[in-house]
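Data availability (excerpt). The following record was deposited with the supplementary files.
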Amino acid sequence: MGGQNPHPAEADVRLPKRKYRVTFLPMNKTVEVDCRTLPYADHGRPGSILDIAMEHGIDLDHACGGACACSTCHVIVRQGLDHCGETTDEEEDQLDEAYGLTPQSRLGCQCVPDGSGDVVVEIPDWNRNLSREGVPQTPRR
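Predicted structure:
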């Protein structure tokens, strides 16, 4: 399973018109996003945080393949939330299932920066490749 979920309502997604940067925490990896090469692949919405992460070798779990059908790609937008498209009702429903929800929480597969500024995204420590690293699946509190 992968790609976009055909069921969610289309969000008001504005793809960027200029280059911008996304910094992924806690690894402090900053990548430059070139609007001329978006979307990179079929990982969530075109130009999404998930799409950007996967293109640049940053593991961001996405059990549903980026179809807005789970909350495993939950990220926290630490800076630049106003540079990201609005959430849909479907994304908000899935976020309700995410552990450690904050007012800056988004699904990486649905969050599309518009390029009007740089974005800093945190991948929560309990959401980083737990099954592949052999770490217990219980979130830390």
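Summary of structural features: Confidence is low (pLDDT under 50) at residues 4-9, 130-141.
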